[in-house]
């Protein structure tokens, strides 16, 4: 049975790869195609090309995340560090390693070392800041700059995706019509403002910065059903979609994935509230019940 930390990492990877606002963006991109909508063949072609674009984009993003996880596993995983009470931690080079506490520095050997190899580092938190220096110490000087460029590209991509998705939602669901410069200013302020506040607040504490980033990815996964379930319902509606509605076999498979995702999210909530006070556990139980109720309502409401 995988640990709660491993499940949280996997769910965070799903949330950061799929991203609920991407579903709104992709729906908006379908409408942007200039096709003759009276021709079923032209509409099918537009749907097919959009499916290819979305699939390749998600696969590319997934494999980038998988590469980072696999590299960390090969270079920094150590069973003693993973089993620490306050962990799991990684085995970091001693020059950059941050111990789990000042009074308890645990020496370790990285996963690629032989079982009887001498200690190569200390157990510490492998966050966004330590990652670059850890890669530099193990893979070479160039890896630090590759990691920095990767973070810059990821930040730029996330900012643009959130901005475009916000513009589509404002122009579609909310039906807000603004001048282009006002729309850009408003959506980018709403997208960048909170992120800038969190970045400035957590900058002095790298561990807190990394934890918030991880929880944000998990939060995106928790929010996924609120974007996925309405899309599945609308796409399977014959009055709305006509001959383009989702077929039953595909619909069953996608609903099964959505149910599995909801179940894993609830499992994470249960793991998170273990050991908390009774009022907090009751509040979490009410939240979980409301979460399931809203998900069911979006499908059968």
- Quickly count the helices: 11
Order of helices and strands: HHHHEEEHHHHHHH
Major sheet description: 3 strands, antiparallel
Which regions have little confidence, pLDDT < 50, spanning 5+ residues?
A: 97-103
Strand content: under 5%
Please tell me the overall pLDDT: 78
- The rounded distance between the terminal residues' Cα atoms is 35 Å
Rg result:
22 Å
Strand order of the largest sheet: 1-3-2
Question: How many distinct beta strands?
Answer: 3
Choose one word for the global shape.
globular
- Residues in helix, %: over 70%
Give me the secondary-structure category: mainly alpha
Structural commentary:
There is one protein chain. The protein has 301 residues and is mainly alpha-helical. The chain has one domain. 72% of the residues lie in helices and 3% in strands. The chain contains 11 helices and 3 strands, in the order ααααβββααααααα. The chain has helices spanning 4-18, 20-31, 40-76, 79-82, 128-139, 141-171, 180-202, 206-235, 238-241, 248-273, 278-300, and strands at 90-93, 107-108, 121-124. Strands 1-3-2 form a 3-stranded antiparallel β-sheet. Helix 2 (20-31) packs across helix 6 (141-171) and helix 2 crosses helix 8. The longest helix has 37 residues, at 40-76. Residues 97-103 have low confidence and may be disordered.
